Amino acid sequence: PASEDAVSAAIEKHLSSNPTVMEQLESVVEVHWPTFGTLSEMARKSWACGACMMLVPYADPMARQNFSRCASAKFALAVEIEMRERVFSKFQQHIQCYPELTKLDGLADKDKKLLGPFADFLLGKRPYGLGDMITDLDRARKLNLPLFKEFGAWLNRELPDLAGQISKLYQIKGFRNPETHGSPSSADPHRFPNLCRRVLDSLATPHD
């Protein structure tokens, strides 16, 4: 029989080459979870692919577990996409109003160990993964450096509920890229979609 990775790849190829099927799947998801309709196109496609993977019938318990983890990686990717768009890219736009904070090259050189990935992302120099995002959310609460102080203040104004999601994000991180992040997540793969939905619902909730 085909491996889980091979079947996952086949599902992704089938959905990408059959937009009508993808649209129907997305419509079903949105009926049961309205926030889904507010996600970006890339996040919706990743989530729909994960949902399809969860439906694949596998008699072997180990195969089912592996398939659940493949699906969970897709759900985690959707969280990463929305975090980047709704949090970090918006903060990137925000700091353009503060000349003293846009001089990030100097900050990165001075405190490269702490500020390198964050500063590089804000300067558009590198990709920014979920692990980096979670680390810098934590640093915004703990560090007294100018960039992180401004980030923390901005988060408190724009997304005051996000701090309460950090423990969930750490569980999600382990499914996003277990090879990079080491030990597997403590989250139950079968309950993982609900975990991701709670984070995405928080990100999508408007604040006055």
Describe the SSE topology.
Blueprint (H helix, E strand, L loop, with lengths): L3 H14 L1 H14 L8 H14 L6 H34 L4 H4 L1 H7 L1 H11 L7 H13 L3 H13 L7 H11 L1 H4 L10 H13 L4
Helix pairs in contact: 2-3, 3-4, 4-10, 4-12, 6-7, 8-9, 8-10
Radius of gyration: 18 Å
- Please outline the major beta sheet: none
Shape: elongated
Distance between the termini: 54 Å
Question: Any low-confidence stretches, pLDDT <50, length ≥5?
Answer: none
The total of helices stands at: 12
- Strand content of the residues, in percent? under 5%
Mean pLDDT: 80
The succession of helices and strands, N to C, reads: HHHHHHHHHHHH
Helix content class:
over 70%
| Structural class by SSE content | mainly alpha
Q: What is the count of β-strands? A: 0
